[in-house]
Design goal:
Layout: H1 5-29, H2 33-38, H3 45-55, H4 60-72, H5 78-81, H6 84-101, H7 110-113, H8 116-154, H9 158-204, H10 212-217, H11 234-251, H12 263-270, H13 275-292, H14 294-307, H15 311-317, H16 331-336, H17 343-379, H18 385-407, H19 413-423, H20 428-433, H21 442-466, H22 478-497, H23 503-513, H24 521-524, H25 537-562, H26 566-588
Length: 591
């Protein structure tokens, strides 16, 4: 496609502003490790919330949604819509607990909740396992999306795309620390919103589409519009809806949607001014992520079925794209190739913003693990702030380099998504319960981590070759069910066969974060003089359910109105507004 001088000017302006933000915040970020990784724990909810949304506005997300819609229709999005449940649980139950913990990273939690060699091993191993291995995989999927966008819209080779995206992102991330990331995210969020909505509106006016009504009436599209899957076929509704809603949201670990909060979501909560701002940030994130953003992506995905109904059509239109990079997820950047001068620049800037926002967050988050939970804790405990910031900046560059290399080997964002879910299957319940059940110990988490990884290797590598367990191709979801079951039974057995943490460790943790006392009664009863805080867990669960209905109602209200179904759209909107009123009233009552 032709990119005009105006388009290039818009893109250049975007790069320059991003770099200036990094330079502006460099001095403050370099003053200490806490400034570099937590912005001094003084960030407001709106900035943190927007940053979370911008991070998950990754360029691979619209590609992933397009892949899902083309294969399984709108209903296929339950694969990620279901994570709203854990998101709302984080908002109303875990946000305040994380903020009270006052740890620097969520991995530091291990030596607050557990003790001894087990806790130290967990912290060190997961610093590398998550901060490097998992983090690099996530960034590689984002970089893969950048490769496909650069190839389709700019005619760039994979290496050229990665070099451009990597250099600019590494510069402002390594200079500005978390504050630079947050401020850049704020700027990039609005660019991304304008780009995604602008692209959707323009594509609907393409001659091949005609209008929204024509799109919805098209014979290929009309079968893809249902919010829920076909319940007459278990091989359709089980993996698309039942599994995500019943199991996946609480049982699996996935960055950005960790049960109980974690990763860069925890980093944002830990950098909040107070508990109220931590809750507000995660609430804004979940509302915007699930209710505000999906429909422009879905509309573009549905439109792509009209213009590029098959992968062969994509290959014919873009013969220069490597065969291993062809897939349904390529349809999103393919549709953007129809955009006019000016809008192309804005949309390209929005996609670049999406790539850079996600990469910068993961770079800062991953380097925080390497610095705080590995280097400072185990390599050089007496390191100065200057040394810690230097190590953080070096690790930022190295993480970006590793992810770029891996991106060149990947072919599909959906494949990576499924692999990550499989590796984390069965561990999620621990992250929910460890705050509220005294019996969980370090070996619970170590065993779960080991078992889930071994089981994932078995189902993804060994079983396909040896055929030890027969899993039909149309029932591949059985792998997740088996994995969750085996891992959960395994870590429960280990929990009851190993000694619990010492009472002094458990009491110190309880006093600091004051979780609901129900799961701590056996310990607290041994110390009658211990002050027991009356919890509000029941109310928090109620708000979680209210928030879930509110966001789903807002999501489907928009969908109903798009489909021209006014009455159900109005009813869903009323439910969403009522839920919002209850939640805002409750949030304002917080101290």
């Amino acid at each position: 496609m032709n990119v005009s001088t105006l388009d290039w000017a818009i893109i250049a302006a975007f790069f320059i502003i991003s770099l200036l933000i990094g330079l502006f915040t460099a001095k403050t970020a370099g003053s200490s490790a806490k400034e570099f990784f937590l912005s001094g724990r003084n960030m407001p909810w709106w900035l943190l919330g927007v940053s979370m949304v911008a991070t998950t506005f990754s360029a691979d997300t619209p590609n992933l949604v397009t892949d899902i819609v083309r294969k399984n229709g709108v209903a296929g999005n339950w694969a990620w819509w279901a994570f709203l449940l854990t998101g709302m649980l984080t908002v109303f139950v875990y946000a305040k607990l994380w903020r009270r913990s006052e740890v620097t990273t969520d991995l530091e939690f291990y030596e607050l909740r557990y003790s001894g060699k087990g806790a130290a091993f967990l912290r060190a191993f997961r610093a590398i396992y998550l901060g490097v291995f998992f983090n690099v995989v996530i960034m590689a999927t984002v970089s893969l999306a950048a490769i496909k966008i650069g190839g389709v819209m700019l005619g760039l080779s994979p290496v050229q795309t990665l070099l451009i995206a990597s250099i600019v992102t590494v510069v402002y991330s390594s200079l500005g620390g978390l504050k630079g990331v947050l401020l850049t995210d704020f700027f990039q969020f609005f660019i991304a919103i304008i780009g995604s909505f602008g692209a959707a509106f323009y594509i609907l006016d393409l001659p091949e589409i005609g209008s929204l009504n024509n799109l919805l009436a098209h014979e290929v599209v009309s079968t893809k519009l249902d919010f829920l899957p076909d319940f007459s076929d278990p091989n359709v509704y089980v993996p698309i809806f039942i599994l995500p809603i019943a199991i996946q949201w609480w049982a699996t670990w996935y960055p950005g949607a960790e049960p109980g909060g974690g990763g860069y979501i925890a980093q944002r909560m830990l950098s909040a001014k107070d508990e109220k701002n931590a809750i507000g940030a995660t609430l804004f994130f979940n509302v915007a992520h699930y209710a505000l953003r999906p429909w422009p992506w879905i509309i573009v995905a549905l439109s792509s079925l009209v213009i590029f109904p098959n992968i062969s059509d994509l290959q014919e239109a873009f013969p220069h794209i490597p065969v291993d990079k062809l897939g349904d997820d390529l349809a999103y950047p393919a549709m953007l190739s129809f955009l006019p001068t000016g809008l192309v620049g804005i949309v390209l800037a929005s996609l670049i913003a999406a790539v850079m926002s996600t990469l910068s967050t993961h770079l800062n988050w991953g380097s925080s693990y390497v610095v705080n939970d590995f280097y400072l804790r185990f390599v050089k405990p007496d390191a100065s702030d200057k040394q810690l910031v230097a190590v953080g900046r070096i690790s930022t560059v190295l993480l970006m380099g590793l992810s770029a290399v891996l991106a060149l080997a990947l072919s599909s964002a959906l494949d990576a998504f499924q692999i990550l879910l499989q590796i984390g299957a069965g561990t999620g319940l621990i992250f929910i319960l460890r705050w509220f059940w005294w019996r969980i110990n370090a070996y619970t988490e170590i065993s779960a981590m080991a078992i889930s990884f071994v089981v994932a290797i078995f189902f993804e590598v060994i079983n396909p070759k040896l055929g030890l367990i027969d899993i039909p191709a149309d029932q591949s979801y059985l792998k997740l069910i088996y994995s969750v079951s085996i891992t959960t039974v395994g870590w429960l057995i280990v929990t009851f066969l190993t000694q619990p943490e010492k009472d002094e460790v458990l009491l110190a943790f309880y006093r600091k974060v004051t979780p609901a006392a129900l799961g701590w009664r056996k310990v607290l009863d041994r110390y009658p003089s211990e002050q027991v805080v009356v919890g509000t867990l029941g109310k928090e669960i109620g708000l979680m359910i209210t928030g879930t209905f509110m966001v789903y109602s807002a999501l489907f209200s928009t969908g109903f109105f798009i489909y021209g179904e006014v009455v159900p759209g109005f009813i869903a909107a009323v439910i969403a507004l009522a839920g919002g009123f209850v939640i805002i009233k409750s949030w304002k009552k917080l101290k």
